[in-house]
User: What shape does this take?
Amino acid sequence: MDNSKRKFVRDTGMLGVLLGLADIGFISLASGKTWSWNKQAFEADNLSAAINGLTDQAVTRDTSGYIQFIAPPIAENGAVVPVGVKVDERVRVHALALLCEKNPRPLAAHYDLSPQAVPFIRTRIKMRETALVIALVRTDEGFISAEKLIKVTRGGCGG
Amino acid sequence: MARPMKIFAVCDESGLTTVRVLIRHNMETGFRKNKDGTLVPAHFITNVEVRHGKNKVLTAEWGGGVSKNPSLFCYFRGGVPGESVEVSWIDNHGESDQKSAIISSG
Assistant: This one.
C-alpha cells in the first residue's frame, strides 16, 4: 500500500492542491467567514473539463470496491434523484465529488471531509436524462472514481 | 425563501452522529426558462458548512445541480448527546443562514 510510487503520487498531489488554491474564487460573508467555490470546475460544461477543474492528477477506477453507491437504478423524477456515496472507512477520504455525465454543468457537489467525518454522503441531485453518475474521491493515495448508471424517466431541467 | 433550515443530529450507541439538514432554497440552475421563454437567473447555494464545536466536520461546495430544497446527510464520530452541531450556508447572491441543533441520543 505504501510504496514509494504511491508516496510520490500523494506528495505531488498535495503540491497540486496548493497550486490549485490560487485558482479558486473566494466569496466572503459579512461575518468575515471565507468561503471558497471552485468556479472552474462548477462552470465546466462537460465531464472531463469538470474533472480537470478538480484535479490535474490521474484518476484511477476504483477496482477494489471501496466506493459504494446508494441510489435507485431508475429515477422517476430527474429533478430529485437521491444519491448516496459511501466509501470504505479504511480509506481516508479527504474529498468527494458528485458529477452527472450529461448535465449541462456536470459537477453537482463537492465535499471536503475532516478526519472526524465518516466518508458517507447523501444528497439529492438533478439529472437531465439517463446518465452515469460519477463519484470522484480524493484519498491519501490519489484520486479514485466509480460510476453508476441511473435511468431517468422524466428529465430534471425543471429543477 | 428565508424559511429556517431544519437540522437533526442523532448520536447512536456506537458513537456515530448522523446529521440531517434540510434547507428551503429554489436552487435555480440558470438554465430553466419561464413560461414566457426568459431564463430564470441562477440562484443556488454555493457553500455549506457543518461544525461540531470548533471542528469543521464537513464543508460542501454545491452547484445548480443539487435539487431544489436540498437535503444533506453526513456522519461523524466524536459527538456526544447534548453537544451542538452548527450548520451554515451561503448562496451565489450572498444570502446566508446559520443554525445549530443539539445532538440527541438515538
Summary: Residues 4-152 of chain A form a domain with the Immunoglobulin-like fold (CATH 2.60.40.2470).
